[in-house]
Amino acid sequence: MLFQLISPLIYMIFPVTLHKADPDVIVGHDFVGVSLDILLHRMRDLKADHWSRIGRFRRTKWPGIGRQGTNLRFMNGRLVCDLASDGARSMISSTTWSLTEMCATHLKSARQDIDPEDTPSFFDDSVSTPDRLITFVRHCELDAHYHMAIAAKVQILPLTRQLTNLAGNSWCVIHLQVLSRRLRPFVAGTRL
User: Fold this and answer.
1) CATH, residue 74
2) Can you name the residues that pair with 25 across neighbouring β-strands?
3) Distance (Å, rounded) from C-alpha 13 to C-alpha 39?
């Protein structure tokens, strides 16, 4: 089946793609609790090269993968905003905190749910046209848009930064160090 052939390839290419894009912030829904753990276990089982590139620190040995929801250390150097986390729940008004419900209440948009058990059916290679696969890819792209739109609508990133500063903590020291490393060549080339 096509899904069984493509799945390992996706887990091999993803860390490199993430490293090339080099996002400062990763926004998702139930990312820390579910998606990150699945991603880590699959990459470890498939012995993915460059697995450490999902964070900003290069590592050669796999550290132990902890319980579900405790593996943020793999994302060191990147800010992670999980819309389904306990912290986000205190800032987002919702009843179920499902992505579909948050889209309806905050964005006034209807979102189609896809059962995770149906995912392999979108990769069915017995179908002559790729329409179902394209539908699935568009659904995933739209979900990524919804994640960002909800985070922007409720202003979760500026609010967390303000709260962190009020508490007297640093929002992300590593984040600032990475930005300064990026800006250093530009500053060095100009006279002040």
Assistant:
1) 3.30.420.10
2) 79
3) 12
What's the total number of domains in the chain?
1
Question: pLDDT tens digit string along 37-80?
Answer: 989 998 999 888 888 899 988 888 888 888 887 888 898 888 88
Q: Tokens in use for 60?
A: 């050669």
* DSSP class per residue in 52-106: GGGSSS--SSPPPP-STT--GGGGTTSEEEETTSHHHHTTS--SS--HHHHIIII
Read off the pLDDT of residues 13-22 as tens digits, 9 standing for 90 and up.
888 899 899 9
Tell me the C-alpha distance between 94 and 71, whole Å.
26
* Domain span including residue 43: 2-188
**Which of helix, strand or coil describes residue 144?**
helix
- pTM across the whole model: 0.79
b/e sequence 105-128, b meaning 16+ C-beta within 10 Å: ebeeeebeeeeeeeeeebbeeeee
